[in-house]
Write a structure and sequence with these properties.
homodimer; 599 residues; alpha+beta; 6-stranded mixed β-sheet; 28 strands; globular
């Protein structure tokens, strides 16, 4: 019998047998890969394999006689269904009666017991926190037992996709230049080495892209950078000759993917490592040489990558133009298809949009699974249509589509909400306008250089809060350059994040409102941080909105907006028209003219 | 020769002799007392004694051959003057060339050396950070050497002011009730004891007030609270019989002030202490019994104290009414005195205001040294007039007065900026309006329950940032109830503070702008957090502005304000008039009517 044919109870039994053999009293299986990726490759979907639960977030804990899955409210229903009869109990996060995983372990285990986990799937910080909490009851932790690799017999291999060159004409900065900047930051942190473990940092630093992870054009690898070394840990099969030669001529030494641990161990004793302890796996910490000191900090490549150079910014402007053309064609097609009574579903619509994007030059893929959502589905924050959930669009409600493209010259992320019904209700208009005023509030912001993003979050929420509305996700995330559509280290959101907003950062701007059971509304643009005025009170920064797609002004209640907001909106619409029209047919252009008239 | 007559170099020499005798290679003297008070009593002004520097912030470090004072930009000029010829170098904080104190120590000392300090003047957190940083170079730290107590021969004794009863009719909650609430929070934190070391927490918990500290009606003491004990460490001489009897009948055990350490040492081994490590002195940590565990957290009394009960809130409303009467009388007097050409100075004006406050029932004292500042002095953020700096008010600029009163039923804090010149300039109006819109922005805020204060800070700065202006201090601080005018744990400011804003908190609302060399502008009101609407998106909170004093609308540029802001201002002015008029003479009332007409 193939392992993949085992039932979940059989998998649990196999795990328990191995736990017993290895002297472990509990085992934790989080949703994480060695690179702390948003989308782990199949070989690292341990939690899905052990539990059958397919949600994007959740942690399984197994003891000799109990098993539980901890997940958040997005997945309560799905987890209930998928865990039925598996022997795994559902622990609903954030409910008052739900114990934390560590409280559960402290209740189930006794002093002297051992909790195992795979250090490659745990961040250094989380592993330390787990150990500290467990030690309060005399329970030991052991990250060295990757026993699922043994139990999961037909586990897929590590992705073998080909990497390819990110040409300098799009990257704007060579690998040697990037390595020099990283080295400066290592030295500034009083360290000697850093390990790049995030796949997008590896891709950015070495000007390569890959196809190992859905939606993220990255290749599986690590890197070690020190004063005298630049090592890329990436398997031979991934590297085409041209790319390998260019890397070697850039002074990059290439070693096998699995050679990282031995390389780290061979470094001089007492070396100092600048590591992002929240985003570096604990296995790396355990492989450091004797006496090594970890200096915690943001990974230099992460910071450098977030601040786009002129070439990258030029690429983004090209990418949003292409995206704007595709979005315009799609909305025109959609309007006409619906007018003709053709059947359009969430999925078929998203497919059509993909085809318009795919017509654009340098298109690689979508940057995430499109959130194409009709009516009540729009209110499900992380909804993505599947064949099971797919519904037809009708002229009775709102349609929200959040999508993006990966182009070799830039990554895009855009959301528009349009009225499919001829006469939007007053509530729809009021809701749409409050959320849009948030998008505009961020877009028009001027703020002192050096502040953290959370200080600007209220600009996005002001009109919504005034109306007694709130949304619980972030407002702005970083966007990679032909890389992950969600990147750090900066953000604008309610949660604290000490990273400063800096000139050259590219982010989303996506305030929203979700009326459960009715509809969701979000107008998301991409923004670029730019230098603004300098006064006796210091330097100020501002944002450029670069996304080019009309906003459905039939949903706008002008009376709720300030004159400045109205002016911004009219300017925006005019700019959308002026920028896109030269790239559209006469008919498309006339259609867009009508959509972009001033309010 | 009395010690107080020693010159600073002689004091330094005495300290160095003692350092040598005790085997210390450096000694740190911060500005702090064992209670981490904003205003240390004379006996704890070690840093002032050793250096002669009288600013409110600064740290002296002495080695065998060097001595330095680290202070911030407010005090650069003053420190330069006061340190001249003392042998103490000035280290200007925040300048790029200035080493941190620990970097200085790591440069001056060698491995094996010892840095001494008085643990009573260091927080647990700071002491730990110092030890961790010093250990990187093998330097030891020793907080057990309070050698300045020896060197400073005629050091004043610990304050002996009398404590007095805070009547239940103003406190609203009895000591046993407060102790029960504290015990619940200790248990919730999984701890067994807490130590109250902040003097305002002691005063609040035991419903007593004192006169040991300027402006803060507190009495020097500590408290230890556990499941089975409530001990107040306060010297006999402080406690009048009535108060002592009431405390004893409330189940409070009273011990000598200096009995805290021995009491802590006598507690059961392995006890768990909930301690605010940032605000509890390291001497307390060193006195804990063997195996004691410190559970870091906000002191329960600090949290409870910040959320005012109905009786306290009623008292605040009475206090702001009295304050409003005094402010109105003062501004009328000032206007008339200046019209008559009488000489009024910053100090004499502040004195007059004090006299009006003193006429009010239950007045105890001012709540801080009034910032009575004319023209350019208004732009010096922490300016307080002294006989040396005092200037006459002229009808040529703006006058800013920030002041407050301690009344038995509440503490006040108010700032108004008025035009002394007949025709304010456009720049003055524009600046005043931008800052006032910040005050109104906070006043009108509606926000989700559970958010941190920093998320609201942009409401205070929006109009200022739009104008390229910023101020670097906080926007809102907590205000004690007949206690410290600055209290925590909450705040609204740019810096991160994890404390949530909760219903019942009383705070200042004081956005500002400072035009160096010209004037400063600040409109500061007191606000109370209240429950607002509840929607499908959750509970929302809002603020009530309770301060009652007219705003000088001659400085307002209506064209820069939104209709909502104008309505708020007109409503506010009308409410000021309606609330104060019944308590004013006919003449005063007519004068105020004129000041509060709608714009």
């Amino acid at each position: 019998m193939k392992h993949s044919e085992l039932t979940v109870p059989q998998r649990l039994q196999a795990l328990r047998d191995e736990m017993k053999a290895q002297g472990l009293d509990a085992y934790i299986i989080p949703t994480s890969d060695p690179h702390m990726s948003e989308y782990p490759a199949s070989c690292w979907k341990y939690r899905k394999w052990i539990s059958g639960f397919t949600g994007s977030a959740g942690t399984v804990v197994v003891t000799a006689d109990k098993a539980g899955l901890w997940t958040d409210s997005r997945y309560f229903l799905q987890a209930e269904t998928q865990l039925a009869d598996t022997g795994i109990d559902l622990y609903r996060l954030m409910l008052p009666e739900t114990p934390s995983i560590t409280d559960f372990l402290k209740t189930e285990l006794k002093s002297g017991d051992t909790v195992g986990y795979n250090a490659l799937t745990y961040s250094i910080l989380d592993a330390e926190a787990l150990a500290a909490d467990m030690s309060k009851k005399g329970i030991k932790t052991d990250g060295s037992k990757a026993i699922l690799d043994k139990v999961w017999g037909d586990r897929p291999s590590i992705p073998e996709g080909k990497a390819f060159e990110m040409p300098l004409k799009y990257a704007g900065k060579s690998t040697p230049e990037k390595v020099e900047e990283i080295r400066k930051m290592i030295a500034n942190a009083d360290a000697e080495y850093t390990v790049l473990s995030a796949l997008d940092e590896v891709a950015w630093t070495f000007n390569l892209r890959g196809s190992d992870v859905t939606y993220n054009p990255v290749a599986v690898g690590y890197s070690l950078i020190g004063k005298d070394c630049v090592i890329l840990f990436m398997d031979d099969a991934k590297l085409p000759d041209d790319l390998r030669k260019r890397l070697e001529s850039d002074g990059v030494e290439i070693r096998r993917y699995d050679a990282l641990a031995e390389t780290l161990k061979s470094l001089p004793e007492n070396s100092k490592f600048l590591l992002d302890v929240a985003h570096t796996n604990a296995g790396i910490a355990e492989s450091l040489p004797k006496g090594a000191e970890i200096i915690p900090g943001i990974s230099p490549a992460n910071t450098l990558k977030s601040i786009k150079n002129e070439t990258e910014l030029k690429g983004f402007k090209s990418a949003v133009l292409k995206d704007g053309i595709a979005m315009t064609k799609y909305f025109k097609w959609l309007e006409e298809a619906m007018a003709k009574g053709e059947k359009v579903t969430e999925l078929s619509g998203a497919g059509k949009l993909r085809s318009y994007r795919a017509e654009q030059p340098l298109f690689l893929d979508e940057s995430f699974a499109p959130i194409s959502s009709y009516g009540p589905h729009g209110a499900v924050v992380h909804y993505t249509p599947t064949p099971e959930t797919d519904v037809e669009l009708h002229p009775d409600s709102l349609y929200l589509i959040d999508s993006g493209g990966q182009y070799l010259d830039g990554t895009t992320d855009i959301t528009r909400t349009i009225a499919l019904l001829p006469e939007p209700t007053e509530q729809m208009k009021s809701d749409f306008t409050a959320a849009l005023r948030g998008t505009i509030g961020i877009a028009m912001a001027r703020f002192p250089k050096g502040i953290r993003g959370c200080l600007l979050d209220a600009y996005a929420r002001h009109a919504l809060w005034d109306a007694g509305i709130n949304y619980l996700h972030g407002t702005c995330h970083g966007i990679g350059h032909c890389l992950n559509v969600h990147e750090g280290p900066q953000s604008i959101r309610m949660e604290e994040n000490p990273v400063k907003i800096e000139t050259g950062m590219v982010m989303s701007d996506e305030p929203a409102m979700y009326r459960a059971g009715e509809y969701g509304i979000r107008t998301e643009n991409m923004i670029v941080v730019k230098d603004d005025i300098k006064t006796q009170f210091g330097e100020f920064l501002a944002f450029d909105t670069i996304t080019l797609c009309y906003i459905d002004t039939r949903l706008v209640d002008k009376s709720q907006m300030t004159p400045k907001e109205i002016a911004w909106l009219n300017d925006y619409q005019e700019n959308v028209y002026a920028s896109l029209a030269p790239h559209l047919s006469e008919e498309e252009s006339a259609w867009l003219r009508n959509k972009t008239l001033p309010i």
